[in-house]
Amino acid sequence: MHLVPNQLPPERLIVSMEAQESRLAENGADSPFVLKGAGTMSGNSRWAFIGAIIGAVLLSIGGIIYTRVAAQEGDRFGFHTFIKARTHRLAEPGSAAPPAPIVIQLSPEMVRVSAIALGHPRLAVINGKTVAEGDNVRLQAPNASIALILRIVKIGDGSIDLSDGTKAFSAQLTIPSPAKPKNP
Question: For the segment 137-176, what is each residue's pLDDT rounded down to a tens digit?
């Protein structure tokens, strides 16, 4: 008869799929390898917050200065207004009659249309200035210190319709002749 021992040898584990338990240092603050948690006001978020606060303070100071200056001048928004011209000095001294109207003769030399673009919006170049439909163009009268302001009513193919509020005018596209080449 042969006797079998009642006690088996202990099992040995060669490889395991479970994570091993790590032992934490009892005092983790002393270790240089322990990550400290990211707070809400750390890194770039702190500087973004400080920048936003500084921007808000500067805008507030600018608004306060603007309203104080506008209140001192008596003009809330500082928009430019047109000056009402008085013509009582143009009339004869002692006369109660209104002065004679100033008449400006509109000539083709005053309106030089050099380009028209029929896209959206329609554009034109009048006297070197780019304008669109609905814009105003200022024309200087020759040999006079008076300017004529006309409104662009319509920009068409080869022509532009202008108005002074009562009368309509039309200006044609003028294409300058090419410069002659110089012969050496």
Answer: 988 777 767 778 889 999 999 899 998 888 888 888 887 6
Q: In what order do the strands lie in the sheet with 136-140?
A: 136-140, 147-155, 159-163, 168-172
Residue 41 phi, psi (nearest 5): -115, 55
62 to each of 51, 58, 67, 71, how far by Cα in Å? 16, 6, 9, 14
Please spell the DSSP secondary structure of 76-97, one letter per residue. SS----PPPP--TTTSPTT--S
Cα-Cα-Cα-Cα torsion 147, 150, 152, 157, nearest 10 degrees, comes to -80
Strand partners, 140: 147
Q: pTM, whole model, 2 decimals?
A: 0.43
Which of 168, 84, 78, 170 lies closest to 126 in space, CA to CA? 170
Q: Give the separation between CA 62 and CA 81, rounded to whole angstroms.
A: 24
Cβ partners under 8 Å of residue 73, min gap 6? none
Beta strands per DSSP E along the chain: 113-117, 123-126, 129-132, 136-140, 147-155, 159-163, 168-172
Residues 160/108, Cβ–Cβ less than 8 Å: no
Q: How does 33-49 read in b/e, with b if 16+ C-beta sit within 10 Å?
A: eeeeeeeeeeeeeeeee
